[in-house]
Write the structure tokens for this entry.
Amino acid sequence: MNKLIVALIAGTFAAVASAQAPAPQTPAAPATPAAKMTTKEKAATVDAATKAGAENTSGATAAAQGAAAAKTEKGTAKALPTKADKQKAVDAATMKGDNDAGAKAAAKGSATAKAEKAEPKALPTKADKQKAVDETTKSQAKGG
């Protein structure tokens, strides 16, 4: 049973990998066989292939340079010329962060406060505890 599961997983992986691979490109067949081509025709074919390769390479290098520039700019902070611009940026960041997290935290905090309000606070010393007991006893004696 385990071998069957492993075989199914391996087959699925192979099918997905082959589906994502680009189709193999076949070179364009020359109009005349290579044996019958003159040296000028061969040179023209080589030049065309070289130019096509150079165009692809220049695009790749431009993309690499753009990515490198983006990485260096990403870490640097934007220079804001005036205090008003800086304050606007702070306000925007504050509003962005307060949308959901602030409302949820406030609701949770108020629920916790309501729960703690019903519970009596712990008294730190024996004297405080004795005083609370005496007050409760007096108030119950007057009411009863």
Remarks:
- Residues 5 and 11 are 10 Å apart (CA to CA).
